[in-house]
Amino acid sequence: MSPLQLAERLKKAALELGFSLAGVTPAATPSGVEQLQAWLDAGFAGEMTYLADRRPAYDHPEGVLPGAKSLLVLATPYRTLEPQSPEPGQGRVSRYAWGPTDYHDYVRPRLHQLADTLRALAPGSESRCVIDTAPLLEREFARLAGLGWQGKNTMLIHPRQGSWFFLSAVLTNAELAPDEPFKTDHCGTCTACLDACPTQAFPEPGVLDARRCISYLTIEQRGLPSPDLRDAMGEWVFGCDVCQDVCPWNRKAPATEEPTFSPLAASDPLDLAELFELDDAAFRQRFRKTALWRPKRRGLLRNAAIALGNAPAPTAEPGLVRGLSDAEPLVRAACAWALGRYGTESAAKALERQSCIEEDPIVLEELANARST
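Now predict its structure.
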């Protein structure tokens, strides 16, 4: 089978499996490697030290699959309903995490099916399936495979499908006929995404300072966000969609009917006070198979407390008081900050009680600040 026939068969199989876009590009050193190094040197990766640790592997897809010659790059759409506005005591969750299943668990088996198809069509070939966990500049390779251009918000944008999709790839040592790279940037003079970012996380178009990005702050950061960023986090408790919500190219992006990405009744908006009633076992049972498992219990409760501090709800105060005695210092610190914004006698008494018994220095600092507001 020729490289062209093989590529066409694989792309056809990909669409049949539910991928919305499929393209092929040769395995080569991506032009974005230099930008990646500059981005790391600027400190924009924050606490994501694993990116620098495996930086050399980004130089070539062979760092992911030795002998790699081609990449089949794929898009999986996840846009479903339009999000509801949160009511008092609720928090916002990024669209991609609404469903009952972590998207990795949906996409990965389909990638393996494509790899099986490839082995059947090209006996002896080797492949590796990746979905945002390997040292690979997926957005750059997606552009090279003709799937779209990289917008000013760094997202890959397709003219008809917008940016509401996951990227993944099958790397192989088989020769596949490449598609034409996407060469036109259709953002023009639009700066909607840059202007709308609540934390001003874009120092320049196409460059993200992750340390200021709400998605990073709610998922990747392990400690408390700096006080100057907490207000701007609003009611987001997991991820953020603002820079995509305002993108004109997403206005007519098609919706998927895939139930994996349909919102759970309790996913978005998320009832925040009840999270403080979950111990480790209950949290695991509720979130283990979802994307919300990523920040773990301590991270999600921290985020919930910050959201409740930004939008105080009387019905949520008991949950924050409960969080003041949580086993995790991070949760106690965030709850102290939040309760300092309630201004009620009951909140003041709870802060005073905890101040008398607290031993963690970070929590004590947050308690002192909260009591002085």
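The mean pLDDT is 96.
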